[in-house]
Amino acid sequence: MFIRSFLMASLLAVSSSAQSLEEIFKEGKASGQLRAFWFDGDRELRDDRTALTVGGILSYQTAFVEGFRGGVSFFSSNGVFPVTRMPYSGQTHNLNLDGSSINTLAEAYLQYTGFDTSITYGRQRLDLPLANDYYNRMLPNSFEALSIQNRSLSHTLLKAAYITGWKYKGSDTFVSPTYSLGIDRDIAVLGAVYTPELSLKIELYDTYVRDVMNAPYFQIIDNDIWTF
């Protein structure tokens, strides 16, 4: 259902332009990352853990059409040899919990850019304090969401997101963002990033999950403090 809705929205955006499908895709941009990850661990009171995985990310973005463009990314992580299962260690996050490979369409979105605003709908990576891609192993997290960024205020980036699904980096399946709590709730986020100068950044966010939490977040990064 999600992919079908995305494709229908993309076709509507394309049909409103005089450009041909050939031009739209010909002027698009493809990119890729090939990665390999080796892990070998031995910790007291834990099972020995060994893993070697290969894979990466293959992405494609169409050219802009009247401010619209589409994008997709395929995520892949594959074990090279039998891997010790690690249900409690939390060390690799490179494969599904059952040790099977991850091969999934992790990004599939329609994006509009104009009037100092970018609106993205669909499967996408996010950069929010409590909902980010956490890209420290083979693959990042990705989300099913509507996200908005606006730069109409000087030195300020306004952010908002409504998240309905989440694909953990060690999984090939999108589930409710609160699946681990045994409930089904969406996540709403509002935030602002103020950068009056290159060395100073002030961030303020509020993350709301009905019946679960309302979490404000405040951070100041002043690089001059660490300059000697």
Mean pLDDT: 85
H/E element sequence: HHEEEEEEEEEEEE
β content, as a range? over 45%
Return the structural class.
mainly beta
Low-confidence stretches: 84-91
Radius of gyration: 20 Å
Major sheet attributes: 10 strands, antiparallel
How many strands?
A: 12
Strands in their spatial order, largest beta sheet: 1-2-3-4-5-8-9-10-11-12
Number of helices in the DSSP assignment: 2
Shape: globular
Q: Roughly how many Å apart are the termini?
A: 56 Å
Q: Would you give an account of this structure?
A:
This protein is mainly beta. Helix content is 9%, strand content 50%. The chain has a 10-stranded antiparallel β-sheet, covered by helices on one side. A two-stranded antiparallel ribbon has the order 6-7. The relative contact order is 0.12.
Task: Give a short overview.
This protein is mostly beta strands and 228 residues long.
List the helices and strands and how they pair.
Blueprint: H1 2-15, H2 21-26, E1 29-41, E2 49-61, E3 68-79, E4 102-114, E5 117-124, E6 127-128, E7 131-132, E8 142-150, E9 156-167, E10 187-197, E11 200-209, E12 213-222
Antiparallel strand pairs: 1-2, 2-3, 3-4, 4-5, 5-8, 6-7, 8-9, 9-10, 10-11, 11-12
Characteristic key phrases:
two-stranded antiparallel ribbon, 228 residues, mainly beta
